[in-house]
Amino acid sequence: MTFQRLLFFLLISIFSFGSIKLCAQQQDTVKHTLADSLPKSFVDRMQQFAKKSSEESRSDFDADKATISQIKIFDEIKRVLQKAKIYLRKNLDTTGTKTELKEIEADFKIAGDGVFVNRGTAQTFRNLTATSKILFELENKASKRKAALDASQTALNNFRYQLDSLSSIPSLFKFPKDSVSLMRYLKKIVVIAYEVKPIDSALKEANGNIQTLINQVNLTVFRLQSSLEEIESYQKAMAENAYRRDFGNIWAREGYYRPFNEILSHSMVKGLLTLSFYVENNQGRMVILLLLIITCFIYLRSLKNIYVERALLSPGFENQLVLKYPLLSALLIIISLFQFMFISPPFILNVMLWSVSCICVSFIFKQYISKYWMRIWLLMVLFFFFAAFGNLVLQASRIERWLMLGGSLIGCIAGGLALILGPKNELRERWITYSIGLMVGLEMAATVANLFGRYNLAKALFISGFLNVVIAILFLWTVRLINEGLSLAFNVYSSPNRKLFYLNYEKVGSRAPVLFYVLLVIGWVILFGRNFPAFAYLSRPLIEFFSEDRTIGNYTFSINNLVLFFGIMAIAVIISKIVSFFASDWHLDKSHGDKSKKQGIGSWLLLVRISILSLGLFLAVGAAGIPMDRFTIVLSALGVGIGFGLQTLVNNLVSGLIIAFEKPVNVGDIVDVDGQGGTMKSIGFRSSIIATWDGADVVMPNGDLLNSHLINWSLGGNRKRISIVIGVAYHTDLEKCRQLLKDVLESEERILKSPAPVIQYEQFGNSAIDLKIYFWTKHIAEALPTRSDLIIAINKVFKANNIEIPFAQQDIHLHYPEEDKNDNG
């Protein structure tokens, strides 16, 4: 519109300006004055018109811009409202929070029984420990719920902030000048306001409810933290005054009484509560424990099958108990070793693990140790279960003190008689006598402490005395079974590859290495010390030293993180090498005579190892909390190194990856590289190993392997074509000879029927008619023996049928010219 009006006004102005100029030429002075004044008036009118048009255009532009902005604002408000509706409907679990707070309160009452209420005369170490574990888990639950509530409140506030900020944008308040457009715009505002109002009210209400819950959770967290601090003060005082009197003498009058059945019920509920919390938080470790037991059992079972197939089992499984009881051995070995992976477990979980181990050892002992020491072992297990049951009782009572006194005295007597009267020459492990002697001393000390009111000290000594015997026997037999398993594996895996995973089986004998016993003693000390209050405070500086944060530059780390990183990487490397070791050992396949059978995992071995190491690296980085940007520096350094002198190494590494993916050769393939024949023994990251027919192992870099003229016989099915050249006499019946050779070839089972053997007569030789036999053997390893046997068979058939194989001969004719002349004369 503006451009059309401007064009119309310009045409009229130009026409008027032309008429005035024509009149000016006809008149002299007046015309000149009029001609000077008219153009000036035209310029003013043009400037006014341009100014007016510019204002109108700017007004239209602002109106259009405001309209576009209003549309975007309305759309954004609708999106925010939609997100707020979804969030209010799905993400707010106020009911669940209230329910969890009630559960935390109920669990707090259970945990506080015997510590904050019904205290009794004195606190007990086990009760304080169980209570602190429960309160710690409750605090974690409350803290997580608090964090979730804080996040919800932040999200609600963000929704309200977005709505308020969108509603205050100036573009919303630029109303159209047209009345019709204004009415339409006002209707849009009314609709938006109608939609915003209930959501805004819901956001306010939800925010208020969440704030109320946050206040409740804060009070709960504060209460739990205060309770934990109080328990910590009790534990510290107990550790610093380990020898103080907790109660009066055992014959003195009770100062506080609580029914024993009520104490048992309270102890059972609290113990199961600690167990449920710990299992819930350590489900991953439980799964790993189960998988390790299954893996160990499968391996021991397969090892037993090998011994059965080879008839290597000794009568009565002498020194082969790990094969007689593969499941029980797997349970004992894995549980004894893996229990240290459970950080600060509840005592009831330890009792369950030790009970399973005791049952396993009892069955393994059966018919293996003498009846006397078997009875001693069962008696020790019975004492241990009695002491463990007593240790699960969390609050002191006079009945328990008398039971402890009786158990200590009986234990002292039984242990002393076992040491004095027992035939020590029948013991498989002499160290057991030391643990029994220690038990007698501990039980005597427990008796004295119990008599004179040192209840916590007496209880710690009471459980530790019997526990040390059971743990010592379990550990000794765990080490024995591990060493036995290694010794038995030596008979199967007699030539492990040093490059893959090497164990010097020749050093594994009937007695385990000293390192195993050192680790056994360390584990025994840890399990033994957990029963004493001072152990936690003595070990705390060491734990803090490992967990303390340290800073180098901008990087913060702790020794725990570094140990975790290198530990995970070491485990990944060991697993990778173990996989390589078992996948690359050919003893089992050769024993069955199936040389054509491929190594199942061998062909994918390099990829499996790369996957294991890569997974281990990512797990180690994630567990240690190492920033990923640090790897940029490492990669840059590697790039510089590659540029300056690592080309060959990188070439071999990349060639290894190419071999892994393209698979021109697999582990177990029969190959020929530059005239050097053999079998692929392993494919590594940098180099591969070829076991030659002469018995040597050729280590060949992967780059050279790819660049060489590699012949892979296995790609063609491991078959090979062989030829035999024979010469027969000229008077031989050739058709009969052909038929005899066909019969010999058909009777040989190592020759392929398709393609069929070929018999061809080649040429008339100097002394024989030459023929050549072509045939395919089923396996390249049978080529030379088959040809040798065929030569013997053909020679035998030819002799039976009077077919002559002539050897090279020449007729020599002597000519004497002088003698010929004399004869003629």
TrEMBL record:
Pfam families tied to this protein: MS_channel_2nd, MS_channel_3rd
Mechanosensitive ion channel MscS C-terminal domain: residues covered: 722-805
Keyword set includes Ribonucleoprotein: no
Transmembrane portions of the chain: 283-300, 321-341, 377-396, 402-422, 431-452, 458-479, 514-538, 558-583, 604-626, 632-654
Subcellular location: Cell membrane
Alphabetized SUPFAM superfamilies for the sequence: Mechanosensitive channel protein MscS (YggB), C-terminal domain, Mechanosensitive channel protein MscS (YggB), transmembrane region, Sm-like ribonucleoproteins
InterPro entries named in the record: LSM_dom_sf, MS_channel_C, MscS-like_channel, MscS_beta-dom_sf, MscS_channel_2nd, MscS_channel_C_sf, MscS_channel_TM-2
A Gene Ontology molecular function term of the record: mechanosensitive monoatomic ion channel activity
Bilayer topology annotation: Multi-pass membrane protein
Signal peptide: 1-24
UniProt KW Cell cycle keyword: no
A GO-annotated cellular component: plasma membrane
Organism superkingdom: Bacteria
Domain Mechanosensitive ion channel MscS: 648-714
Keywords for the protein's UniProt record, in alphabetical order: Cell membrane, Membrane, Signal, Transmembrane, Transmembrane helix
PANTHER family (UniProt xref): MECHANOSENSITIVE CHANNEL MSCK, POTASSIUM CHANNEL RELATED
UniProt similarity note: Belongs to the MscS (TC 1.A.23) family.
Name of the featured protein: Mechanosensitive ion channel
Organism: Pedobacter roseus
Lineage: Bacteria, Pseudomonadati, Bacteroidota, Sphingobacteriia, Sphingobacteriales
